[in-house]
Write a structure and sequence with these properties.
By secondary structure, this protein is an alpha+beta fold. About 40% of the residues lie in helices and about 20% in strands. The protein has a domain at about 255-410: 2-Layer Sandwich (Dna Ligase, domain 1). It is built from 16 helices and 13 strands. A five-stranded mixed β-sheet has the order 5-6-1-7-8. The protein binds a DNA duplex (18 and 18 nucleotides) through helix 3, helix 9, strand 9 and strand 12.
Length: about 450
DNA sequence: TCTGGGGTCCTAGGACCC
DNA sequence: TCTGGGGTCCTAGGACCC
């Protein structure tokens, strides 16, 4: 029987690395990528981290570093990052028999039985660097939790010389180390670096005198379950080398779909909120069509800004059940707007709204047709065709080409709810109008 | 002035049932 | 005085992930 072996491959400072592909001047400089609305930093180059910029740092608090330290800030360009991600994932997939794309910048691979996994992983990351120009790191180990940990070591060994042995930089394979060597690494690694240990549990562990990965590994799993949870117990077992989390290379359809946004500026009026909610609900329906599901309940929420506690606060959500499970954009938008009407209160500065589709189920559970008459069935089919046409046009010509009337027709500058993105780079790889131009 | 967005899993407790 | 017990389902909230 072959021993289990997993790899975790991920992009270094991924969004920043994507931006650097098309603007080499960004190399060696502190760079951050900002969230929607240019609100806070969601990716940082090593140089930006060295300036002390934390993940999630609000832009207005760090923007003085633009002048003082040459910090470059860019608005998130998700169209670009998604496309670069696809390219990396297809190259990475060749390393293992099976691949689980875990997030936009990382994937797990099943390497069980692969001879010379370390050398193969080095070759793969070299190819990704040459072909796509994005640096990556690979962690290899018998469980996914350990592969994550190995990946952390590979990154730190490269980024912070002296933290770990230099030979573990970029690719770290724990399976080829001795137990003593592994323990030495675990003893140098804070428990908070473990996949599954967040700020809350990390603090509790520290208070209990468990500071390092080695401390955690040496706890009795049964005690961990009793004192913390089955989740942490599973983590401990994984750290001890027993696989408890399998590779998920065929992710199930999502159980819920959300589209939520903070507004570019405060919004007070119902009409404007209706525009936003129509847009969010349409996008959510589009995602729903993408996984061929139906929803049976639509949640809509609006809220003021929690960061302005002195201003009047209001936050409410409501769930509007659909008569029958559906993927009809018109029906979903209608439900969201009906909910909005019921929760809206005048006199507040709204900062955020969102639409979530709940109770998703496969569209093929066509049970509802049995309960409908012939006319209704025909109507359903016409609606489905209309939805497909709507999606197709928007996929082909760009989101927002065809919208519902309630989404509003006023131009962008007049819409306070649309997000600010003042520093977005061109969508070099996905938009003909924004190709990189080279002049002699 | 200015603070993201989208998910999953687990647990505790209440409602309900027999 | 004294007020069963066990099972299931649902929901809200907490914790985690990137």
């Amino acid at each position: 029987m072959t021993l289990p072996l997993y790899a975790l491959l991920d992009g270094n400072n991924f969004y920043v690395s994507c931006e650097r592909i098309f603007d080499p001047r960004l190399h060696g400089r502190p760079v951050v990528v900002l969230s929607n609305n240019d609100g806070c930093a969601i990716a940082r180059s090593d140089e930006a981290k060295a300036l002390g910029i934390k993940m999630g740092a609000p832009w207005f608090q760090i923007r003085h570093l633009e002048r003082e330290a040459g910090l470059v800030a860019l608005s998130a360009n998700f169209a670009l990052y998604g496309d670069i991600s696809d390219r990396i994932m297809s190259l990475a997939a060749r390393l293992g028999d099976r691949q689980e794309v875990y997030s936009i910048d990382e994937c797990f691979l099943d390497l069980a039985g692969l001879p010379d996994a370390t050398a193969q992983a080095r070759a793969t990351r070299e190819q990704i660097l040459r072909w796509i120009d994005v640096p990556t790191c690979v962690g290899i180990a018998p469980t996914k939790t350990l592969a994550k940990l190995a990946n952390h070591i590979a990154k730190s060994a490269e980024r912070k010389p002296g933290s770990y042995p230099a030979r573990l930089a970029q690719v770290c394979n724990l399976a080829e180390l001795s137990e003593r060597q592994r323990d030495w690494l675990y003893q140098r690694t804070p428990v908070g670096e473990v996949w599954g240990v967040g700020p809350r549990i990390g603090r509790q562990l520290n208070e209990a005198g468990i500071a390092t990965v080695l401390d955690l590994i040496r706890l009795d799993p049964a005690t961990v379950k009793a004192r913390w949870s089955v989740v942490l117990e599973r983590t401990v077992r994984e750290l001890r080398g027993t696989p408890c989390i399998g590779l998920d290379d065929a992710p199930a359809p999502k159980q819920q779909i959300a589209v939520t946004r903070s507004f570019g500026q405060r919004v007070t009026g119902l009409a404007e909120l209706k525009e936003a909610v129509t847009d969010f609900a349409s996008r959510a329906a589009h995602k729903l069509h993408g996984q061929d599901s139906h929803t049976s309940a639509v949640l809509v929420f609006i809220r003021t800004s929690p960061f302005k506690p002195q201003a009047p606060q209001y936050s409410r959500s409501i769930i509007v059940p659909l008569r029958l499970p559906s993927s009809d954009t018109l029906q979903i938008v209608g439900a969201a707007l009906a909910g909005l009407d019921r929760i809206y209160r005048a006199g507040f500065d709204y900062a955020k709204a969102g639409v979530m589709l709940l109770d998703l189920q496969p569209a093929t559970q066509g049970q509802q047709e049995l309960e409908l008459g012939d006319d209704a069935v025909l109507h359903e089919r016409r609606q489905a065709r209309l939805m497909r046409a709507l999606d197709a046009v928007n996929d082909r010509f760009g989101r927002g080409t065809l919208t519902l009337g309630s989404a509003g027709l006023c131009q962008e500058p007049g819409r306070r709810w649309t997000m600010r993105q003042e520093r977005r780079t061109p969508r070099y790889t996905t938009c003909w109008d924004e190709l990189l131009t080279v002049s002699a």
